[in-house]
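pipeline: protein-struct stage 2 | run 1193 | 5-formyltetrahydrofolate cyclo-ligase
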Amino acid sequence: MSDDTDHAKRALRAELRERRQLLTQAQREQAAEGIAHQLDALVAQLDARSISCFLATTTEPGTQSFIRDAMARGIRVLLPITRADGLLDWAVANDSDEVGIGLYGLPEPTGEVLGPIAVNDVDLMIIPAAAVDSSGTRLGWGRGYFDKTIGSMEKCPPVYAVVYDSEVLDEVPRELHDQPVTGVVTPTRTLVLSPDRR
């Protein structure tokens, strides 16, 4: 990784983190409603019966109501669990509101732990991001979990990153290990950016 690219990523992440901190509770709730609407439509469009998603932190566009509604419709939802070796385990979302705290203080499921290959069976991956650009390049939060997961999948399904509207940028710093996403979901729109990424 070049020092310039690393510095650019760190600076952009810090700016985006700060912007997210400034959002009001009403703005967060409105964003969560929009995200649920957009994700419901995407799942229906792709006829996805099994998906992976993530438990949003307080500053991320909320995913919890979407996850509850998807489960109520009979969709199998896998949620990630961080591991010390940089891989992700998975757990099937259930009706329990019990949430654990993962390695980095992030919310994680408390159900039965499945190994990293459990995600190979999903029809759609919904992942967090700090920003996404118009070419499908995703800026994560710097730990590489989702880049490793996507890069190691033999047959990767469509991957959509969830961000706020202002985080769809013209360009984000990119390195060789950064995996492109199929599209991006914001509270107001869903964009297909890199349909032939695999």
